Amino acid sequence: MGTRVAAAVTSRLGAVLILLVTVGLTALVFLTSPAQPDAEPGDGLPAGKQSTRVTELADRFASGRTDVAVVVYERRDAPLTDADRAAVEQARVALAGTATGQVPPAAIAEDGRAALVAVTLAGDAPSSEVDRLREVVHAGGALPEGLSAQVTGGPAFGRDISAAFDGADVTLLIATASVVAVLLLITYRSPLLWIVPLVVIGAGDQVVAKLLPWVAKLVGERTDASVSGIVSVLVFGAGTDYALLLISRYREELRHTPHRREAMAVAVRNAAPAVVASAGTVILALLTLLAAVLTANRTLGVAAAIGVGVALLFGLVVLPAALVSLPRGIFWPFVPRLGGDDPTTKGVWSRVAHAVGRHPARVLAGAAVALAVLATGLLGTSIGLAQTEQFRTEVESVTAQEALARHFPAGSSQPVTVIVAAGATDQAVAAVQGLAGVAAVAKPERSDDGTLAKLRVDLREASGTAAADDAVRRIRAALPGALVGGAPAGDLDKRDAYARDNAVVVPLVLLVVLLVLVLLLRSVVAPLLLLLTVIVSFAASVGAAGLVLRHVLGIPALDAGVPLLSFLFLVALGVDYNIFLVTRAREEAAARGDTRAGMIRALGATGGVITSAGILLAAVFTVLGVLPVIVLTQIGVIVGIGVVLDTLVVRTVVVPAIALLLGERFWWPARPAAASASAPEARHVAEEGGRHVASGASGVPGRHAG
């Protein structure tokens, strides 16, 4: 940010105008935010896949776009009694009032201990239809003692997932804001200061929330509660990071000038390059999701990029205007005094920096061993969760599905749908019936124009399991001219799409980070080594998280979408700390003519800021675990562990040790130390306390909170 912009932000008139414009634009966003678009049948499915095309062809059949909820009646310890069967029949008649069409007679299990009643609902039926169905099923006193009744199937799973997010925006906002407030209070040890960044970032978060429907219109898919939750966490995490850096720099400048507006102008001018570079890298990395085939990934990428952009705007424009409008007393009781000590050469991180400087090879070897040990957790980590493994809490659709699987083919609650040419119906039925994993094939249905036929195929295993995936592949191989869809095929297609997105997006993210670091540092060796530390850090993070998820939380595997999103967030956010540390080290090396001295001073100056920001960011991501959905819990755990490793080990120990061992070769082909010979003024600035810092990361807020 240029000098003129910094001056405008911090002048009395400029600050007032910025705050007034912010309030006005925020109100405008709230008033003009459109409603979320209606759900489409193909939402969440990858474009062009067979499962998506089957959904698109549903209107050509009399059954239309319908879905089936399954009511499971079970007596665990004995066969169904006559009274049980009479109660099931009575319920079937009552359920006809909630169904689209007739409700067929109940299917009785071979062991006689369970019965199924299939209730057809409109494919676009609201979740209230499932609630009404459950009210009928659970009507008080209608069932004999010992007979249970529960609802499962696609609509029931969808309703339970939706219920898991009921009130999620408020829950996440309260939990995230509380975590940020506590950590800011601890960091600054001031009963007043933490309120300012929290209010500013919270306002930015609400603006982003109102912008998400526009994202849905732009990308073509609704932004659901999981997207809004992740974006909210990103806004709070990134925004708080930027606030920590800016306030740290502002506090330091207050020790050098009696005028707070002048101090803020210097702070904004010097902090902006690193903050803008960091935010720009995160935004570019998030936008690589536009190369994904899953619309949900593209939606998340655009929404999250907008969120980080708003966090940058509020952190670098609105926050300075708010702070400069308040007196120094906002830092009370640790108010920075004119002529106070320079914190960059004292404190814990200065001692850590000198310890790393004394034994860089030993420190690097120890850190490498620790990271390698954590990465061994990858050996027991598998990818892929069944539909019944998506929740951390007990839900009816899962318990009903488990009851169904004890007495019927597990896949009968969510069948495969096969569409073939009408003339090939008999051959298709014959080909599918003999396949391993297929339990039954229902009577075919002709399309309205008579050209197509639709087959319902029940699998022996539930949707989302490896056995169900294999069965879908066999059906597709046996019917190369057919379209194979339904929930099991949709789950398989989404996992295949995630695998494709992993192969495309991960290299793009690494390329974006590499190019940004090359341009920023004007170096080749340093960016390549930093990129290597990112990969090693990610492997250690997933390995450590895998151990926690399996052995502490009892989650057997990672969801298919978790590795990509975790990698994206860890790399994009982790590069922030690379930039904060290495740009400062480059400046110090240029000023002092020595990479070793520059890196030690940079680590002492930025260690506290990076640690504070990293711990806060990790805690904010962990907040995702308050929702009872496995995917968000896994992302929160992996990113939380990864950020802690990044801040406490990689950025503050591994990277400095590598730079100290390589010396001037770390910057090749650039030679920042050589600049000191032709820039005596840089050395003069460094001798006066290193106040001219492009990274804006001076200070150790955890220690010098005033």
TrEMBL record:
InterPro entries for this protein: MMPL_dom, Mycobact_MmpL, SSD
Record's subcellular location: Cell membrane
Pfam families the UniProt entry points to: MMPL (PF03176)
Statement: the UniProt record of this protein carries the keyword Cell membrane: yes
Protein name, per record: MMPL family transporter
PROSITE patterns xrefs: SSD
Lineage top rank: taxon: Bacteria
PANTHER family named in the record: MEMBRANE PROTEIN MJ1562-RELATED (PTHR33406), MEMBRANE PROTEIN YDGH-RELATED (PTHR33406:SF6)
UniProt keyword annotations, A-Z: Cell membrane, Membrane, Transmembrane, Transmembrane helix
Every SSD domain range: 215-325, 531-660
Stretches assigned to coiled coil: none
Record keyword Transport present: no
Family label: Belongs to the resistance-nodulation-cell division (RND) (TC 2.A.6) family. MmpL subfamily.
Annotated membrane topology: Multi-pass membrane protein
Segments crossing the lipid bilayer: 170-188, 195-215, 227-250, 271-294, 300-324, 363-386, 503-521, 528-549, 561-581, 602-631, 637-662
